[in-house]
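can u pls check wat happens w/ inosinic acid
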Amino acid sequence: MKKIIAATKNKNKVIEFERILSPLGYKVLSQSDAGIELEVGETGETFEQNAYLKAAAIFQASGVAVIADDSGLEVDYIDKAPGVYSARFCGKDTPYSVKNAAILEKLKEAPEERRTARFVCAICYINPKGDVIKINKTCEGKIAHTQKGINGFGYDPIFIPVNGSKTTAEMNEQEKDAVSHRGKALRSLAEELELRLDF
Ligand code: IMP
């Protein structure tokens, strides 16, 4: 199995990386499994920039293959907020029940057709030679009227992917991975890695 370090301290992301990449032949190590305690600041202005910053810093520290993800929720009615600030929205350590309630409150007056939103995932992969692959994927959907479901993490209880009626927190793991921004991005990365024999 090929080893990849996940450049994140978010345990939920590591779980999703493992779930999606291990059936495809990759062993995902968390930063702590790899003994790297580095905290990388998200100083970029875009998901892509932040994913690259995280991957590059962990690659420099480890020299082995690294995958980083910068992701978040864009809500159209509030000018694509919280966007790259998704983790910091309402304060980094504020519980997601409170962050989700704040978004629902901002959309209280929003007509149904203006509740559109998307999860965005920028993946940056760096191989041991330092070659870089960048992938961006989205999961389009809308904001629910109440928080529903206990699966997943973050904004899952308020996000309903298109053509469905369940929030991603009401979906099981397979259902979420099949439509999610991260599922799409990681499958696309695995395809690229298959195609590029030198990686
Ligand atoms: P960052 O990429 O570490 O800046 O954090 C991304 C943030 O976006 C997470 O902490 C969540 O708030 C949110 N997010 C990203 N992906 C998901 C997801 O799959 N479900 C729910 N929230 C997500």
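Residues 10, 42, 70-73, 86-87, 119, 152-156, 180, 182 surround inosinic acid (CB under 6 Å).
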